[in-house]
């Protein structure tokens, strides 16, 4: 019922109302006027009552968040500078470290490219060597098979002539 009354007061009186209720079992119920938020109401309460709702730990966390946001903004600006954006606002002395960072980055990229190129060249040589070995092995196997087929052909063409008319074709097995 109290949340219903809070809604009615908010509408009828055009007041900013916020209600937070915790039951004995720990269940939370809340209502906040549509025209505001709970943090805004708590901030107004703190200003009007003079009581601090946040302790020193929360204040230091808030300061840390602000510091990290500022650091993030600075890093975003530095990243834009490294990308070559927004350079007109910089002085020549500020451009020198950016140029040095870009030179170091360029050297690193070229070193990595060279490393990859050497690895590809090495792999190419290994593949060529393996191809030569496989070609050599295939050639020797083919010679051995050709020799075996010839021996079979000679065996079937004997002088007594029993098998010669029956075997008119020779079969070759190719890998």
What class would the helix/strand composition place it in? Answer: mainly alpha
User: Mean pLDDT, as a whole number?
Assistant: 84
Percent helix, as a range, is 55-70%
The DSSP helix count reads 4
Strand content: 5-15%
> How is the largest sheet built, in terms of strand order?
1-2
How many domains would you count in the coordinates? 3
Subcellular location: Nucleus
GO molecular function: DNA binding; DNA-binding transcription factor activity; protein dimerization activity
GO cellular component, one term: nucleus
Protein name: GLOBOSA-like MADS box transcription factor
List keywords for this structure.
175 residues, mainly alpha, SRF-like, 4 helices, single chain
Characterize the structure shown:
This protein has 175 residues and is mainly alpha-helical. The chain folds into 3 domains: 1-53, 3-Layer(aba) Sandwich (SRF-like); 54-89; 92-148. It is 66% helix and 6% strand. The protein contains 4 helices and 2 strands. Strands 1-2 form a two-stranded antiparallel sheet. A hairpin with a 5-residue loop joins strand 1 (18-22) and strand 2. The chain is elongated and about 115 Å long. The protein starts with a helix and ends in a 19-residue tail after the last helix. GO terms for molecular function: DNA binding; DNA-binding transcription factor activity; protein dimerization activity. Residues 1-35 form the MADS-box domain. Residues 58-85 form a coiled coil. Pfam families: K-box, SRF-TF. It is found in: Nucleus.
């Amino acid at each position: 019922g109290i949340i219903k009354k809070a809604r009615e007061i908010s509408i009828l009186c055009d007041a900013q109302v916020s209600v937070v209720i915790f039951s004995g079992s720990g269940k939370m119920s809340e209502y906040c006027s549509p025209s505001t938020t709970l943090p805004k109401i708590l901030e107004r309460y703190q200003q009007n009552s003079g009581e601090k709702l946040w302790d020193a730990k929360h204040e230091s966390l808030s300061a840390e968040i602000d510091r990290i946001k500022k650091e993030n903004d600075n890093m975003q600006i530095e990243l834009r500078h490294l990308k070559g954006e927004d350079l007109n606002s910089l002085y020549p002395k500020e451009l020198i470290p950016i140029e040095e960072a870009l030179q170091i980055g360029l050297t690193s990229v070229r070193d990595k490219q060279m490393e990859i190129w050497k690895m590809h060249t090495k792999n190419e040589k290994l593949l060529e060597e393996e191809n030569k070995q496989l070609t050599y092995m295939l050639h020797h196997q083919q010679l051995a098979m050709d020799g075996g087929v010839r021996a079979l052909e000679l065996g079937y063409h004997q002088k007594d002539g029993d098998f010669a008319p029956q075997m008119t074709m020779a079969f070759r097995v190719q890998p």
